[in-house]
Each structure stands twice: as structure tokens, then as C-alpha cells.
Amino acid sequence: MTRFSRDWFDQFVVATRDELVGYLLRMLRSRDDARDISQEAYLKLFIALRSHPERDHVPKALLYTTARNLAISRIRHQQLVERSVVAVTVNEEMHADRQSPEKHARTSEEMRSLLSIVSRLPPRCRKVLMLRLVEGLSQKEIAASLGIAVSTVEKHLAKALQYSSRAMREKKDAQAPNHAGAPLPRLREALL
Description:
Number of strands: 0
CATH class of the largest domain: Mainly Alpha
CATH architecture of the largest domain: Orthogonal Bundle
Structural class: mainly alpha
Shape: elongated
Number of helices: 8
Largest sheet: none
Distance between the termini: 49 Å
Mean pLDDT: 79
Helix content: over 70%
């Protein structure tokens, strides 16, 4: 049971950070994901402790419970992305007869690149994007589902499009010149 203060919280983070990242690393198998989740867990803990200073909290237990729940959400998201890749691949294979082998190979590579880019988006931004593209929810429905403002949904979608555009442009620049047919226009149309 602890009295909350910023100094105490800073010391708490320093004392628990490495152990928490190690715990999350065993669950997620990605140091970057473990660090991201630990930061989000510390933020949620900070908000909870600051919002309810009158309550007796057991901060370490609350931190680990929050981190575990966030990690489970991340794992579920990754599984959704993997299922999406399978669905896209099956869909591409169904339409492969109508495409030249070159176009089919290029489309498959573009979709893998796009899904890789989406998987690197910040968690909240990625969630908004997936609800829009995979679930087909409107911006208003996404806002209601996540308990955020429609303007925040718009900002997340704009950030996703900006990040995706930049990443695709960088990938295109790194590859052979004039690599046409990138899925970016389709992504832009789906977001609007």
C-alpha cells in the first residue's frame, strides 16, 4: 500500500522496469513490443494512481496485471494480422488466374509490405485502422467503440496513412525505379 507522488513513481519505474520488460519479453518474444507494452502499462498505472490517491493500491500487482492484459491484446492483434494475411493470400490465389504471374507476384509482395507496415503502427493507431479496414466500421462507430472523439479517430487514420505513405515511398525508393501498382491508393480510398 503506497502513497502516490511523482518522485515515488519515478523510483518505482526504475526499480521495476527491467523485470517487467523481461516478463513481457517472455510473453511477446519481441523486445520492442515488450518495451512498448511496459510504457503503456506504466502510463495506465500512473493515471490510476493519480486519479485515485485515496485508494490503497498494490502498484506492482496492478502494473503486472495491466501489462499482462495489454500483452494479451497485442498477441490477439498479431493473430488477427496473421489471419488477415492468410485471407488476403487466399483471395489473391483465387484471382491469380486473372493476373499475369508478374502482377500476381508484385501484388503479393505489396500486400505483405503493407501488412508489415501496419503491424509497426502504434497500438491505438493500428486498432483504429484495423477497425476501419477489416471491420468496415465508420469513424463514428470506431469512436463509440473505443470511447474516443471522432476527431481523434480521424487523427489516428491520418497518422496511419501518413506513416504508411512514407514507409511505402521509402521501400519504393530502395527498390527498382518505377515500381508501379503500390496498394497505397487503395488504402487511401478505404480510409476516406
